[in-house]
Write a structure and sequence with these properties.
The chain is built from 4 helices and 8 strands; from the N terminus they run ββααβββαβαββ. The chain is α+β, with helices and mostly antiparallel strands. It has a domain of 125 residues: 3-Layer(aba) Sandwich (Aminopeptidase), CATH 3.40.630.30. The longest helix has 15 residues. This is GNAT family N-acetyltransferase.
């Protein structure tokens, strides 16, 4: 298990008659994570990738989980419904001294499970972890058209730090901006 903050016991949530758990990812989750990520990438244009792009197979996810477990400043969480992974999030740091105070957050949830606060709870658990690790800043990127996500991030104290103009081209043939957001730890 991870040194420092770990969701040692699954945290249970019950929203709109759906019971789910959030816990730290395990290596045995790798195969399902590969499948879930591929499915999520095909469900929405809110992700950086189209379905099948930058594919991570079971071996790749095992390595990510193993590395995250060893790293003091990485966190990989999964959301479980009836023993099935329906979403996940990661906070990833790097080994550079000048940026060791921050992590980058990413989250994805199967569309069937939108509206149950799974993304919100993955974000909240990640913030609690980051604060416990004395991480000063959490960053994320979000497509400008994903207004629900932007609104959620703002509720959690994230603020717009910049805009990457015409950063993504979507299936409608139009270019969209990527919003760069950051949350600074309250001192």
């Amino acid at each position: 298990m991870r040194v420092g903050f770990v969701i040692k016991v699954q945290k249970e949530f019950y929203i709109r008659n759906l019971r789910y758990f959030i816990r730290t990812a395990k290596e045995e989750d790798a195969k399902i994570l590969s499948e879930v990520r591929l499915e999520i990438d095909g469900e929405t244009e809110n992700m950086d990738r189209e379905k099948g792009e930058a594919y991570i197979d079971e071996i790749g996810f095992k390595k990510i989980i193993k590395d995250d477990t060893k790293s003091e400043n990485n966190l990989f969480l999964v959301a479980m419904v009836n023993d099935n992974i329906v979403g996940f999030s990661r906070c990833e740091s790097n080994n550079l001294k000048r940026t060791s105070h921050k992590v980058e957050f990413g989250v994805c949830v199967l569309q069937e499970y939108w509206g149950y606060r799974i993304g919100r709870n993955l974000l909240n658990e990640s913030i609690l972890w980051a604060d416990s690790k004395d991480i000063k800043k959490i960053t994320l990127n979000v497509l400008e058209s994903n207004s629900k996500a932007i609104e959620l991030y703002e509720k959690f104290g994230f603020e717009v730090e910049g805009v990457l103009k015409k950063d993504k081209i979507l299936s409608d043939g139009n270019y969209y901006n990527t919003i760069l957001m950051g949350r600074f730890r309250n001192e």
